[in-house]
Amino acid sequence: MTARPASDDLSNFWMPFTANRQFKAAPRLLVSARGMYYRASDGHEVLDGCAGLWCVNAGHCRDEIVAAVQAEAASLDFAPTFQMGHPLAFEAAAKVAEVMPAGLDRIFFANSGSEAVDTALKIALAYHRARGEGQRTRLIGRERGYHGVGFGGISVGGISPNRKAFSGSLLGNIDHLSHTHNLEHNAFSKGQPAWGAHLADELERLVMLHDPSTIAAVIVEPVAGSTGVLIPPQGYLQRLREICTKHGILLIFDEVITGFGRLGRATASEYFAVTPDLIALAKAINNAAVPMGAVAAGRHVHDAIVQSGMPSAIELFHGYTYSAHPLASAAAIAAQDLYCKENLFARADRLAPAFERAAHALADAPHVKDVRNLGLVAGIELESRVDAPGARAYEVFVKCFEAGVLVRYTGDILAFSPPLIVEEEQIEHMFGTMRKVLASVQ
Ligand SMILES: Cc1ncc(COP(=O)(O)O)c(C=O)c1O
Description:
Layout: H1 20-25, E1 30-34, E2 37-40, E3 45-48, H2 51-54, H3 63-75, H4 87-99, E4 106-110, H5 113-130, E5 138-142, H6 151-156, H7 160-164, E6 174-177, H8 183-186, H9 202-210, E7 215-220, H10 236-247, E8 250-254, H11 268-272, E9 278-281, E10 293-297, H12 299-306, H13 326-341, H14 344-360, E11 368-374, E12 377-382, H15 391-402, E13 405-406, E14 408-410, E15 413-416, H16 424-440
The structure holds pyridoxal-5'-phosphate.
Pyridoxal-5'-phosphate (PLP) is lined by residues 112-114, 117, 146-148, 221, 225-226, 254, 256-257, 282.
């Protein structure tokens, strides 16, 4: 897969989260996409086992979304949303609100998951201040959490390579819960692991250490994706909710990956029947057609901020030039309509057992030390090579791509999270290809 673009010069684009020199020596270029497939620059088709980057939940280049974006580009290319508005921004907010848990129907738009997370953290701080509890400034994240790359996100996040170079400049007043990943107890769990709910009790310990009156919010991914598919133990999220409620701490779910159908429901909050105070969203909010992120805020949070002060005063000094950009809004409305028309969340739910079976069929494949799954997401953890962590999964990723299947890897963990339109045969093909590739690598 070394076909190069016309200019043959890849040097100008400094690629994100990429080994630039390695990639540019042997590039993998995608030139078009439709439905479940990408087409690479050498013409071969690649089955999208990852919904791009966990985001194209309705499949690629869907006609309805393309048409909506094209029409909006031709009629309203840009409109400010500071002290101005445009109709699609309000309509997009209403569509998103419709599928959020009851009460979380106030939608603040951003342009990415990172911005959504930083927005949620700022809203949490502003909420406490508006209620006269401005001393609540501490934020609690979790080890192995991924909350994007803003300074807020990497501070509450728990992935050390993402923090290392910036460690002197992270936000202060942060603490972290332990992560919940434990293969000794939970290897090869199907769905939620049975062991580990007690890890939520660490929050009580942190609350006692810092005093509840200093803590603003706890942020977790209900299912952690980027850090290697970590499924919450049974009862864990419920326990976090109880402790937050008891101490007046806001609970933020980062649903940038789980939002819009990944677990067979609109949100992980709905799936787990645990309602946070704020939800960070992005990616599938508009099927990733145009960059967009959002925060769904509980009315109690919104009202505490927006009902404070004079009606003529700006309540929250925060926002982005492109908040609710017309093209992103048009794509969000079309994507939400498509999810609804095709009943895609229910489809993901229906496919989940077949997906689980196909994933766990890899349990006896070479190098596999764990398989875990929930909804339409699965993680396959490999034994690492001595002195070369990540090298084996990288090789599997490259060979799968060459064999026409896109998989994601993090360290030595491989992840599948296909568009919700995936067919059962395609699920079999994804995992079957990985089995063959696993047998071919050292
Ligand atoms: C849980 C979570 N939060 C935040 C982000 C950051 O989103 P973005 O890359 O759009 O900034 C991601 C991206 O994968 C994510 O998985």
